[in-house]
Amino acid sequence: MEPYVAFTVIAALVFAAGGGMQKHGIATRLGPVSAAAFARRPGRVVWALCRNPLWVLGSLLTLVGFGFETQALGLGDLSVVKPLSRLQTLFTLLIGVWLLSERLAPREWLGMGVMLAGVLMLGSEPADALVYIPDTTLSFALSAGIVVLVLLLVPLAESGRWRLSPDAGLALAGGALFSVGDLLMKMGTEVVRLQTGGFDLPGGSTLSTLVKTGEFQLAFAATLIGFVLQQLAFSRGRVSVVIPVGGAAGTLLTALLGFGLLHEPLNVLRVGGIAVVIAGTLLATLPGAPPAGLARAPANVL
Questions:
Q1: How far is CA 164 from CA 32, 102, 256, in A?
Q2: How far is Cα 249 from Cα 146, in angstroms, rounded to an integer?
Q3: pLDDT score, position 217
Q4: How far apart are CA 172 and CA 193, in angstroms?
Q5: What pLDDT score was predicted for residue 301?
Q6: Helix axis angle, 3-29 relative to 214-236, nearest 10°?
Q7: Which of 19, 130, 166, 174 might form a disulfide with 158, Cβ 3.0–4.6 angstroms?
Q8: Distance between CA atoms of 207 and 135, rounded to whole angstroms?
Q9: How is residue 77 annotated by DSSP?
Q10: Rounded to whole angstroms, how far apart are CA atoms 269 and 81?
Q11: Residues in the chain, pLDDT under 50
């Protein structure tokens, strides 16, 4: 197994656990929160969440997950690492079965199997051997354009006008911003590899070099906004909707960015694996599935 595969799997597991804890923390402290409401009183929302130890622990786990995912991005292609991270959806469903004694419909088990098949296809891909920096100006401009467009569309995304539930609309917006963060983070890891000849995040020099790059700083900003939108999505709906919908959208956009801007290899195995992962995700989470136990409705209104 390639090292980047192991780092991605660990990141997916940590993200799944962290997302569940965040949802439970939000259910304890908040009711549904819109983007406009958060913009009016961000301090009150953040303070309410920070008083919940479970939400804080879930957020710390998410931060740890980003560390593992960054290490994976430093070793493997963006268009492979991101689809592999969709194991987060599978882990989320399994947590509901294992810890909450839930039952999944046959279609959900089939979707999980399809998703796993796609992950195995991608896991057989070799790590990238070449260090390549794309046109930085173009990449930054495109990233900024995506961020601005997403933020402008957030009110529509959570309004339900596109036949999307508010939680799904916010999840799509958050997934798009996570994909921008992944693109910029991958570019930052390539800068580090050019300067140091490798990428070993636990090493002090690698981390200090990475955080000084403009790519990392912009990636952190995009990811932070995506994180906020994901928390708003958690406040409006179910983890079993938010994580798969946001992940599927982010996977598709990230793959397109990897192929188009980073010039990563485009072959049948890779394209097929990405398509199978997305198909399995949608099959396992189509409307009509019983809600996951990690997806309880918020109990209290802020």
A1: 16, 26, 23
A2: 13
A3: 92
A4: 32
A5: 40
A6: 50
A7: 166
A8: 23
A9: -
A10: 14
A11: 289-302
Query: Tens digit of pLDDT for each residue in 119-173?
Result: 777 767 665 555 566 678 888 888 899 999 988 888 877 776 666 778 888 888 9
Query: Cα angle at 43 between 39 and 46, to 5 degrees?
Result: 100
What confidence score (pLDDT) does residue 241 get?
Answer: 73
Q: How is residue 218 written in tokens?
A: 């912009």
Q: Is-contact 118 252, C-beta < 8 A?
A: no
Name the residue among 79, 74, 64, 50 with its Cα closest to residue 12. 64
Tokens of 159: 């309004």
pTM comes to 0.84
Q: Token pair for residue 148?
A: 């601005």
* Residue of 41, 261, 228, 36 whose CA lies nearest to 145: 261
The burial of 53, by beta-carbon neighbours within 10 Å (0-12 exposed, 13-18 middle, 19 or more buried), is given as exposed
Q: What is the DSSP string of 182-231?
A: HHHHHHHHHHHHHHHSS--TTSHHHHHHHHTSHHHHHHHHHHHHHHHHHH
Q: How many alpha carbons fall within 13 Å on the CB side of residue 281?
A: 30
Phi/psi class of residue 274: alpha, beta or left (left: φ > 0; alpha: ψ in -120 to 50)? alpha
